[in-house]
Design brief:
Blueprint lengths: L1 E4 L14 H9 L3 E5 L10 H6 L3 E3 L2 H7 L2 E3 L17 E4 L7 H10 L2 E4 L13 H19 L21 E5 L3 H12 L3 E6 L2 H10 L5 E4 L2 H8 L4 E4 L25 E4 L20 E4 L2 E4 L9 H22 L1 H7 L1 H4 L2 E4 L2 E2 L2 H6 L7 H5 L1
Helix pairs in contact: 5-6, 9-10
Protein name: alanine dehydrogenase
Enzyme class: oxidoreductase
Organism: Vagococcus fessus
């Protein structure tokens, strides 16, 4: 199969979907690789490295789309690429169509098969592609919080580390999933007083096994969240708020009760989500202020560590690319129910029930389309 790898265009995005090593594996399996020029530079991979394993360098995105059947990406399809989408294309990427109606419309109009990394499952009910990126995002969230609290970054000038003779800084992490546990683990390793709040007891138990005994693990209610956050130097939100859920864990009116100089880093950064005042920002313009509280809401945090993130993502997605390329989209979906869970659109049909409800569109199951 002809596989296309694009240079990502999202603000600040440094990742590339496929490393030269993974490209070599695909080429050895008798697939053709077409990669946009300099697609790998942000992750430290040159055109020459891809050429050495047999990939063909394309000068622009249009050429990649024209040559390829399987489009192997990292982030959402940008508006500039909408005209290139065709019915024969298989799109494999983080898509997030639930929060991007224009992208959803473009995918539906093209009639292509669009598979979202974030919805692919495994035998344990986990999300094997989303998991490592979430863990990385959690770690980066703490690192960015550490950086943004510097005086030179507009922060209050607090070092998130235990310093002899000074009060221990307080870091509050909301959500004990993969991102939250990773953020809490790194914050605790720096010697902070860490409070991790969540409602999933299974996730809290996992956190208990991972984190130091000095970490406070609390059941999340509006009251416990507000109480913990009132003295926090850094708040990291890792709760993805269901689109049909009303209310917020931190209301806009709660901001005035936070400590002066407190910073909010919102990993989920979903507008109208757990933190009412959050909305997505970009790597080039990451912060804004509401009621005197700085918010950092970059929605592609792993891109800040492009090489590490690329190596992780390429390794975990390669098996799906091999399966799609060797079997074709339809047969791969028939054979692999976990891959099937990742389908966002297919043959002009919307296959995500939650997204269909949100946009008041007709939902069609992938199984029905395949039949």
């Amino acid at each position: 199969m002809k596989i296309g790898i694009l240079k990502e265009t999202k603000n600040g995005e440094q990742r590339v979907a496929c490393t030269p090593q993974s490209a070599s594996v695909l080429i050895e399996a008798n697939h053709d690789i077409y990669i946009q020029s300099e697609a790998g530079l942000g992750s430290g991979f040159t055109n020459r490295e891809y050429e050495k394993v047999g990939a063909v360098i394309c000068q622009n995105a249009e050429q990649v789309y024209k040559e390829s059947i399987l489009i192997y990406k990292v982030k959402e399809i940008e508006e500039c690429d909408y005209p290139y989408l065709k019915e024969h294309h298989i799109i494999l990427s983080f898509l997030h169509t639930n929060s991007n109606e224009e992208e959803m419309r473009a995918l539906l109009a093209s009639q292509c098969l669009a598979i979202a990394y974030e919805d692919i499952t495994d035998e344990a009910g986990e999300f094997p592609v989303l998991k490592p990126m979430s863990e990385l995002a959690g770690k980066v969230a703490f690192i960015e919080g550490l950086s943004q609290l510097q005086s030179t970054q507009g922060g209050v000038g607090i070092l998130l580390n235990s310093i002899l003779g000074l009060p221990t800084p307080r870091v509050v992490v909301i959500g004990p999933g993969h991102a939250g546990r990773a953020a809490a683990e790194l914050a605790a390793a720096f010697g902070n007083h860490v409070i991790l709040l969540g409602r999933g007891l299974a996730n809290l138990e996992k956190a208990q096994q991972l984190l130091p005994q000095t970490t406070d693990l609390l059941y999340a209610t509006k009251e416990t969240v507000r109480c913990a956050c009132s003295e926090a130097d850094l708040i990291i939100n890792c709760v993805l708020w269901p689109k049909n859920r009303e209310g917020h864990l931190i209301e806009a009116s709660d901001l005035k009760k936070l400590k002066t100089g407190c910073l909010i880093v919102d990993v989920s950064c979903d507008e109208g989500g757990a933190i009412e005042s959050s909305y997505a920002t970009t790597i080039s313009n990451p912060t804004y202020e509401v009621a005197g509280i700085r918010h950092y809401c970059v929605d592609n945090l792993p891109a800040l560590y492009g090489r590490t993130a690329t190596l992780v993502l390429s390794n975990v997605t390669l098996p799906y690319v091999l399966e799609l390329a060797s079997k074709g989209g339809r047969q791969a979906l028939i054979d692999n129910p976990h891959l099937r869970q990742g389908v966002s659109t297919y043959k002009g049909k919307l296959t995500l029930e939650e997204t269909a409800r949100k946009y008041n569109r007709e939902y069609c199951s992938v199984v029905d389309i395949l039949n």
